[in-house]
Amino acid sequence: MLPTDSRLHSPREFAAVTRSGRRAGTRHLVVYVLGDRSRSAGPRAGFVVSAKVGNAVVRHRVTRRLRPLVRRELSGLAPGTDVVVRALPTAATAGSVDLAADLRAGLVSAARKAGVTVAAVGVGPRAAAPVVTPAEPQHSAVGAAAARGGAPATANGPR
Fold first, then answer.
1. Does residue 147 sit within a domain?
2. CA–CA separation, 102 vs 114, rounded Å?
3. Residue 68: which CATH number?
4. Strand runs (DSSP E) across 14-149, as ranges?
5. Confidence at residue 120, expressed as pLDDT on a 0 to 100 scale
6. For the whole model, what pTM was predicted?
7. 12-21, 29-38, 123-132: lowest mean pLDDT where?
8. The total number of structural domains that make up the chain
9. Exposed/middle/buried for 27, CB within 10 Å: 0-12, 13-18, 19+?
């Protein structure tokens, strides 16, 4: 969930961005950006996922995939910037990596048209993904015993 201050709430706010903002389309998304220099609050975002994308389950899945991607991108936008991300029907079958690439491309293009600067959040669609380093597995008795070089525990306790 995006913080309350980072969300567009009313239909009037969505309409202002989609009507007056600059638009950029990609394979899976259409991104609208509207910069308002008079508003000093942080950037805000909203999602439009229509019934053409799919049933409620599919629409919510698309929104769940987009939400963390948009949250990451909001940190690189100037205060007063509003963003609306509209999912196209092809977003229903797109993976998160494809959605991230399309979001970044659409956001950069629409922001350029709107005269809003977008800071580099990372390199590539997976830039914000946590780096997982291999470590000794400590989540099971078998893994812990193997790490110590001993015999694994059984269901009834150690051997």
1. no
2. 18
3. 3.30.230.10
4. 22-25, 29-35, 44-49, 81-87
5. 74
6. 0.74
7. 123-132
8. 1
9. middle
Residues 6+ away with beta carbon under 8 Å from 7: 44, 45, 46
Indicate whether 157 belongs to any domain: no
Q: What pLDDT digit, counting tens, does each position of 69-80 carry?
A: 999 999 899 889
b/e for 33-42, b at 16 or more Cβ within 10 A? bbbbeeeeee
Residue 63 lies inside a defined structural domain of this protein? yes
Integer CA distances (angstroms), 81 to 34, 43, 157, in order: 6, 5, 59
Give the integer Cα–Cα distance in Å for 10 and 40.
19
Which residues span the domain enclosing 80? 4-114
Say how far apart CA 142 and CA 146 lie, in whole Å.
6
- Sign of the alpha-carbon torsion through 103, 109, 113, 117: positive
Quote the tokens at residue 65: 């995939």
Q: Is residue 93 part of a domain?
A: yes
What's the pLDDT band for 147 if we cut at 50, 70, 90? low
> Within 10 Å of residue 44's Cβ, how many Cβ atoms?
25
> For residues 103 and 149, what is the distance between their CA atoms, to the nearest angstrom?
48
Q: Strand 44-49 relative to strand 29-35: parallel, antiparallel, unpaired?
A: unpaired
CA distance linking residue 42 with residue 5, whole number of Å: 7
